[in-house]
Amino acid sequence: MTVTEKLIPVQVTVVECITASIKRFTLATLDGRALPTFAGGSHVLVQMQQGIQRFTNAYSLVSAPDDTRHYQIAVQREEPSRGGSAFMHEQVRVGSTLLISAPNNLFALDRRADHHLLIAGGIGITPFLSHLPELAAAKASYALHYAARGEEQAGFYAELQDGPHAAHCHFYLASTGQRLSLQQLMGAQPSGTHVYVCGPRRLIDGVLAAARVLELDSHRVHYERFAQAPASGGEFTLELRRSGHRLQVPEGVSILQAIERANLTQVDCLCREGVCGTCETPILEGEAEHHDQYLSAEEKAAQRSMLICVSRARGSRLVLDLRWSRAEGAVCEYQGRLLDPVIVYLT
User: Signal peptide position in this chain (predicted)?
Assistant: First the structure.
């Protein structure tokens, strides 16, 4: 799969330190035109390049959907960083120009809900920051329950406490002894409630477990993982059969990351978390160690395809039927100008 959507050049107009580890970036078009519309829960892909290494990360839009004069994203510095968060924190500043995708949404609100229960953990607050103004504008019934280790780990805690949604927000800081009981909270909700959760794996798994105990219909429980599944397993050799190109995929690096860092080709992947299915790729030889949430158990056992954003080889060699094209030859168009979609322009 090669990238088919056009990328948008944007300039960083504001950089804010929300906490010691979280920065918020405000992005606007180069000519002042409005950016594409989006709904709460959307994210964009940001492309970055540092030397020969290239990164593409997905970041939730944290600005209000009704204001497309700019977008805002929040980036938490990861330790250790796989490259993207360190680049955003250390290299990107006011005046930098980035390339982003149009918004994609895998975590939209369900309009059938009578009540919306939002559950966030740590940096998992980010997709809810665009949900909140959308819910308020619709005069919907909603509540946000936000858990973190302490104020430093609770990005946007002060803004939420003092902002227009304060009456709908509830906080649980472990540093002060406050604990969130998921089963008790979810069991106290009115009928017709839809539950949305984003945060650490433990929190998401806890919500899903509580939903099973409470026998909630699966269509009423929505979740988004804000980090990729760990790229576990040892180093292996990857071959792209159509080109005959081979590369080593190190431990701790996904196939998608290895391809991007080698500057080999552009790959469609809207989520980078193993949930959307856009990077599904046929397996020609070898077997995959599946870490995605998209393929069924039967499809995983059949070993005919895999999601290369999170899954890896079960062995020392894997051959994929991935269309290959040099990234340097790929172009995108923006208002009549051809642009290289892999370069991050820094001023």
Answer: none
**Do 78 and 125 fall into the same domain?**
no
216 and 242 co-located in one domain: no
User: Is the backbone of residue 329 left (phi > 0), alpha (psi -120 to 50) or beta?
Assistant: alpha
The number of distinct structural domains making up the chain is 3
Asked if residue 17 belongs to a known ligand binding site, the reply is: no
**Which of 166, 192, 225 is the last residue before a domain boundary?**
225
Residues 153, 179 share a domain: yes
Q: Is 279 annotated as belonging to a binding site?
A: yes
Is 169 annotated to bind ligand?
Answer: no
Question: Residue 253 is part of which domain span?
Answer: 236-326
Q: What are the tokens at 253?
A: 């690096």
Residuewise pLDDT in 10s, the chain (347 residues): 334 457 899 999 999 999 999 999 999 999 999 999 999 999 998 988 777 666 778 899 999 999 999 999 999 998 766 668 899 999 999 999 999 999 989 899 999 999 999 999 999 999 999 999 999 999 999 999 999 988 878 889 999 999 999 999 999 999 888 999 999 999 999 999 999 999 988 999 999 999 999 999 999 999 987 555 555 678 999 999 888 889 999 987 889 888 887 777 667 677 777 877 888 999 999 999 998 878 888 999 999 999 998 899 999 999 999 864 333 333 232 232 323 333 232 32
Asked if the structure places residue 110 within a domain, the reply is no
Residue entry with tokens 């209000």: 64
Nearest to 109 by CA among 200, 185, 225, 196: 196
